[in-house]
Amino acid sequence: MGHQSELATPHNSDDESGDAFTDGDFGDSDDEHIIERNDNIKASHIPINETKNEDIHKMNGATNGFSKNADFEEQPRHIVRSVSEAHSSDVENPNIHLSDLRRDSHGDQSPSIVGILGDQQNHAEQRLAARRAARAEAREIRMRELERQQREQEDHADKAYDMYAGKTETVGRRDRTRLAALSPASSVLSPRRSSEDSVDDLFSMKDLRHELKEVEEKFRKAMILNAQLDNDKAALGYQLELLKDRIEELHEEYAQLQREHREKCSSLERVKREFESVSRELSAARDAVRARDCAAAAAGFAFVEAAALDAAPSSAGQAVGAVPPLALVSHHAEQLLNDAGEGTLDVRLQNLLSSKQSLESEVRKLKLQLNEERAARQNGVANHHDQEYENELEAARKGLSEAKGRAARAEAEAALNAAHVARLEAQLARLRARQDHQDEHEEQLKQERRKLQREVRTHTHTV
Fold this sequence. Notes:
Layout lengths: L3 H4 L5 H4 L6 H4 L21 H13 L5 H8 L1 H34 L5 H69 L3 H113 L2 E5 L10 H6 L4 E5 H9 L5 H34 L7 H77 L1
Antiparallel strand pairs: 1-2
Pfam families: LRRFIP
Protein name: Leucine-rich repeat flightless-interacting protein 2
Family: Belongs to the LRRFIP family.
């Protein structure tokens, strides 16, 4: 009973401190600690409070227990020392688990591939289930060890008390026999001293009983204090289990945030690569269009769209994929289109068509006047103004023929220019739509990057 090695608790004080509670009180926490069995440490399933209460009931019925009380007075010190050692071991264990978790997290920072991440997550779940099973098995082994240790402590305490009680009784009997044998006048003075001896024995018994009561009272106080310390130890063990569960949850949340962060970073890198490739393609297309326009201008031609600009495309994909037809016209045709006025190609063509119709109406009027003049000359009504009319008629004919030629050429060039202008406007609209789409995509990427940076900073401050 007086040995410290048997009274000291095992190093796994976090599990032993919760022996007064069942597994249902705490819940099955995802503890990753694998508890190994230590055969050198003896344990018991009986809680410390119940054990001490049983010892108090046993000692209340004892009549001679001075040495046994002395042995029990030393027991709280051993228990307090074992509790302090157990808590020191608990303080050291989280650092070890945190370093293991960091090594696992650094090992997981391999190339972020979706398949590999899924395999790692499955492997982590299997490993966690194995650790839970090992923890349950270790708990059962520890409970059996605690039961055996408690039984051995009780047996040892009973044997020590019986040995001490028997030894004191034997020594007292031998002392009384030796004093009676050494007394020279024992036989002569025995009748006279018998009364005195009885009185002395009575006073000595009263003193012994009084001392025994005092010792028992001290022992009760010590055991009450020991029970209070055991209750405090159990409460601290419960709080320690709660803190461990909270730490485990925080570790799991941290690992989940790290996985999400790696996935976001990988998606961000992929989008950045796509954006860079599209930007390179856009710059190459712009350079090609610029080189084509320069070559056409050097040759005295210009590119115009062959068709009018349709309505706005329904989606960016259609705008990017559509290729409008282009036409190569001379600078004179381009000048005519410019002289037609501002606006789209349709408006310019309408202006050219209206000018052509006005010229045709003027030609018809001149033809009617010519026919009237011819009829008047045939009827003899012509006067001295015939020569002037003939000159004017010739001039009108020449002007009409020239106007017709210009109108035909203008109409042909207008058709070509209209086609080229339509193609160029469609291509320009397509390029603008593509540029707008790229700008929107770039803005979304910037917002996503800022959001990820804020999440990383918030998570860093939280940790």
